[in-house]
Amino acid sequence: MVKNLLDCPGKFEETATMSEIDAIDRRILALLQKQGRISNAELAARVHLSPSACHRRVQRLEETGVISDYVALLDARALRRQTTVFVEITLSGQSDEVLDGFERSVRAIPDVLECHLMAGTADYLLKIVVEDTDDFARIHRQHLSRLPGVAQMHSSFALRTVFRTTAIPVQP
């Protein structure tokens, strides 16, 4: 096993490497990504294992951090968060203090789904879900405009989501 950095700075956890994950593990992972509430008995039947062997494998995948959590995927439209906005942010500097301050502050904005440190024209790319342009204006005024170290911001509104998945490819 190798040590992998989690998204919490300074926190490490042992994680299985892909070489330690066999074909049965990959089938388990693929099924759980699509049907997280599948029963162990059904999962075992679908991967051709006994329920106890399947349960042990799932536990191992959880304990090693390959399976980090189980979540419910919500319908953004049903929650009136049907508009996705991508915000490119350029910072005024690249020092650790500027980057850390920005990252700490952006984590506190509940509307931000994702924040990525980028290589390219922007320093960060945010994915935000909002009700409409007025809602984005509120978030911009209350949160985004107050982020530390921001030199420039460009926002793009998604017209339509063509494809979306949360499933990470698990094939070798």
From TrEMBL:
InterPro entries: ArsR-like_HTH (IPR011991), AsnC-type_HTH_dom (IPR000485), Dimeric_a/b-barrel (IPR011008), Tscrpt_reg_AsnC-like (IPR019888), Tscrpt_reg_AsnC/Lrp_C (IPR019887), WH-like_DNA-bd_sf (IPR036388), WH_DNA-bd_sf (IPR036390)
Gene3D superfamilies in UniProt: 3.30.70.920, Winged helix-like DNA-binding domain superfamily/Winged helix DNA-binding domain
Keyword Transport recorded: no
GO BP terms in the entry: regulation of DNA-templated transcription; response to amino acid
Coiled-coil stretches: none
Domain HTH asnC-type: 21-103
Keyword terms, alphabetized: DNA-binding, Transcription, Transcription regulation
Any single GO CC term annotated in Swiss-Prot or TrEMBL for this entry: cytosol
Listed GO MF terms: sequence-specific DNA binding
Keyword Transcription on entry: yes
Domain of life: Bacteria
SUPFAM superfamilies: Dimeric alpha+beta barrel, Winged helix' DNA-binding domain
Classification via CDD domains: HTH_ARSR
Name this polypeptide is given: Transcriptional regulator, AsnC family
